[in-house]
């Protein structure tokens, strides 16, 4: 047949190389992303994301904001912010994951009119819950 062990070794090597390049590209996209808050909406600019260089989300269509704490006794680096957006007259839900910056989270929540769910441990963005990990939602 002509297919030998060397063929499979080379195929696996190329597969790892391609996946490594794609993962590296994903991290470079995240590093170059800039978030802007304006009166009209939330603007996400990513010059290396060729399929969507700039996206503008209107405040009225932001449906949810999640603060995800990944570990106990978390620092700011252990927390992620997830912004959920549904365009008008659409059923598609978009989500943007961004690093947790308390001032940015407060600005997004206040401009979009989102309030924290009742009886959750995190009621403001000033302090991160230290006793447990979890997801805290603003609707």
Mind explaining what this structure looks like?
The chain is built from two helices and seven strands, in the order αββββββαβ. With 139 residues, it is α+β, with helices and mostly antiparallel strands. The strands form two sheets. The protein has a four-stranded antiparallel beta sheet with strand order 6-5-4-7, with helices on one face. A three-stranded antiparallel beta sheet has the order 1-2-3, covered by helices on one side. A hairpin with an 8-residue loop joins strand 2 (41-45) and strand 3.
What is the typical, i.e. mean, pLDDT?
93
How big a fraction of the residues is strand? 25-35%
Gyration radius from CA atoms, angstroms: 20 Å
Strand order of the largest sheet: 6-5-4-7
Order of SSEs: HEEEEEEHE
The percent of residues in helical segments reads 25-40%
Report the uncertain regions. none
The number of strands is: 7
Q: Largest sheet at a glance?
A: 4 strands, antiparallel
């Amino acid at each position: 047949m002509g297919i030998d062990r060397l063929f499979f070794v080379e195929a696996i090597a190329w597969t790892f190389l391609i996946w490594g390049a794609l993962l590296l590209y994903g991290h470079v996209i995240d590093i170059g992303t800039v978030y802007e808050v304006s009166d009209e909406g939330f603007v996400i600019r990513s010059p290396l994301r060729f399929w969507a260089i700039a996206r503008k989300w209107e405040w009225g269509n932001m449906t949810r904001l999640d603060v995800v704490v990944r570990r106990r006794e978390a620092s700011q680096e252990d927390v992620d912010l997830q912004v959920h957006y549904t365009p008008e007259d659409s059923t598609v839900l978009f989500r943007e994951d961004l690093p947790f910056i308390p001032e940015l989270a407060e600005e997004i929540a206040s401009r979009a009119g989102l309030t924290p769910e009742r009886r959750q441990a995190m009621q403001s963005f000033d302090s991160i819950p230290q006793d447990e990990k979890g997801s805290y939602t603003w609707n």
